C-alpha cells in the first residue's frame, strides 16, 4: 500500500485495533487519514473504490467490524463515491448528534468568497460535508449551496432557472461565467492601456 505514497509516509495507526480503545478521536483520525491518502501518486488511478479499501484496512479489525455492521443498516448497495459514503457513515456512527448539527450549520452558511474560484469553493464545501452525514443528498445540497451563495450575481439568475440541474452542470455553468468574466476584464484592461497610450501621444504632439 505504501508504494503509491509520494512522500513515503506511514499509514495512520489503526483507529480501532482488535483489542483496546480508539487511538484518537474520530475527527482527528479522519483528518490524519484524509491527509495521508492525499499524498498518493496517480490520483486518477486511485479510484473511490481503492480509497475505500485503504480506509477499511486502516480502520483496524474492530473498526472494520463496526463498519460492516453499520453499512448494512445505513446504506443500500454502494452508489456514487463509495469512499465519501464510507467516511460519512463512519462519521455518523462515531460523532455525537450535536457535532453533526454544528457542522451542518457551517456548511449551510459557507458562501463563496470574493474572487474565490468555484473549484476552490466546491472543494471547501466537500470538506465541510465530510462531517455532515448527508449521504445521497450530498450532491443535491452542494448544488443548492452554489446556487444560493455564488459570488457571481450575473450567473445566479440562470442558476435559479436550472435549479434541478445536476451538480456537475451547475459547476460547469459557474466556471464558464468565471472564464467569461476574466476575458472581459482582460479586454477592458487592454483597451484602457491603448486609450492611455493614445492620450499620452496626443498630449506629446500638441504645440
TrEMBL record:
Full protein name: Retrotransposon gag domain-containing protein
Organism: Pleurodeles waltl (Iberian ribbed newt)
Taxonomic lineage of the native organism: Eukaryota, Metazoa, Chordata, Craniata, Vertebrata
Amino acid at each position: 500500500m505504501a508504494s503509491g505514497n509520494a512522500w513515503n509516509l506511514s499509514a495512520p495507526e489503526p483507529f480501532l485495533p482488535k483489542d483496546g480503545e480508539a487511538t484518537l478521536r474520530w475527527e482527528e483520525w479522519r483528518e490524519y487519514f484524509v491527509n495521508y491518502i492525499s499524498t498518493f501518486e496517480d490520483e486518477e488511478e486511485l479510484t473511490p473504490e481503492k480509497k475505500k479499501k485503504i480506509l477499511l484496512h486502516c480502520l483496524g479489525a474492530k473498526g472494520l467490524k463496526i463498519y460492516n455492521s453499520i453499512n448494512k443498516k445505513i446504506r443500500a448497495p454502494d452508489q456514487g463515491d463509495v469512499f465519501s459514503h464510507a467516511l460519512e457513515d463512519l462519521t455518523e456512527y462515531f460523532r455525537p448528534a450535536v457535532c453533526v448539527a454544528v457542522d451542518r450549520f457551517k456548511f449551510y452558511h459557507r458562501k463563496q468568497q470574493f474572487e474565490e474560484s468555484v473549484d476552490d469553493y466546491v472543494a471547501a464545501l466537500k470538506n465541510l460535508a465530510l462531517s455532515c452525514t448527508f449521504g445521497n443528498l450530498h450532491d443535491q445540497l452542494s448544488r443548492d449551496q452554489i446556487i444560493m451563495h455564488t459570488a457571481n450575481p450575473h450567473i445566479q439568475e440562470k442558476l435559479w432557472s436550472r435549479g434541478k440541474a445536476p451538480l456537475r452542470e451547475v459547476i460547469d455553468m459557474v466556471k464558464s461565467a468565471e472564464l467569461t468574466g476574466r476575458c472581459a476584464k482582460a479586454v477592458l484592461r487592454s483597451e484602457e492601456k491603448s486609450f492611455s497610450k493614445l492620450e499620452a501621444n496626443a498630449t506629446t504632439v500638441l504645440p
